[in-house]
Amino acid sequence: MKQNKKRLTESLEKYLLAIYDISKSNSNIIVKDVADYLKYGGAATAAAIKTLAKMGLINYVPYGNISLTQEGFNTVQLKIYRHNTISNFLNKVLEIEKTSADRNASAIEYSMTEDVLIKFVHFLDFMKQCSCKEPKWLNSCKHNLETGELSNKCSNCLSGCNGGCSGCS
């Protein structure tokens, strides 16, 4: 998925996502709709809307309707893709409960710099698409998470086989 060069703050991203969500059922969005949806004040919402418009992510004129630009729509799609990729990894690979995985995916996204986030999501996406389906070390990691012990394969590797033993390959 193409990466957007603009890095939004978490707050502005919430406004942009709210506009996207509201637009699914209402094509005539006004500032009050966004404020009500997020349960934020009107003045703060109006300021955020103006900022998003200046960034070219939404179409907006004061007291008029709000809509996503193509760039805004692409930004939302990228945000959703990144979030889902991270959340799915946490839920399906690390077996973290779905609600917690979603909450933590958001925290992870905002704790990383853009360059690290891009590479992290790329890695997770690669892992999902890789023909191996499940790297050999993943089962060893799951075993370690469950028992606190290294698997026999890991123990063999650590004893000096350097990947040449049948347990590592």
Outline: elongated
Series of secondary-structure elements, N-terminal to C-terminal: HHHEEHHHHH
CATH H-tier superfamily of the largest domain: Winged helix-like DNA-binding domain superfamily/Winged helix DNA-binding domain
Number of beta strands = 2
SSE-based structural type = mainly alpha
| Total helical elements | 8
The averaged pLDDT comes out at: 87
Biggest sheet strand line-up: 1-2
Would you tell me which CATH topology of the largest domain applies? Arc Repressor Mutant, subunit A
What would you report as the Rg, rounded to the nearest angstrom? 22 Å
What count of structural domains? 3
Question: What is the CATH-assigned architecture of the largest domain?
Answer: Orthogonal Bundle
Proportion in helices? 55-70%
Quaternary structure type: single chain
Describe the main β-sheet briefly: 2 strands, antiparallel
CATH class of the largest domain: Mainly Alpha
Strand content: under 5%
What is the CA-CA span between the terminal residues?
A: 32 Å
Low-confidence stretches: none
Structure in words:
This protein is mainly α and 169 residues long. It has 8 helices and 2 strands; from the N terminus they run αααββααααα. Strands 1-2 form a two-stranded antiparallel sheet. Helix 1 (10-23) crosses helix 2, helix 2 crosses helix 3 (42-54) and helix 4 packs across helix 5 (98-111). The model has no long low-confidence stretch (mean pLDDT 87).
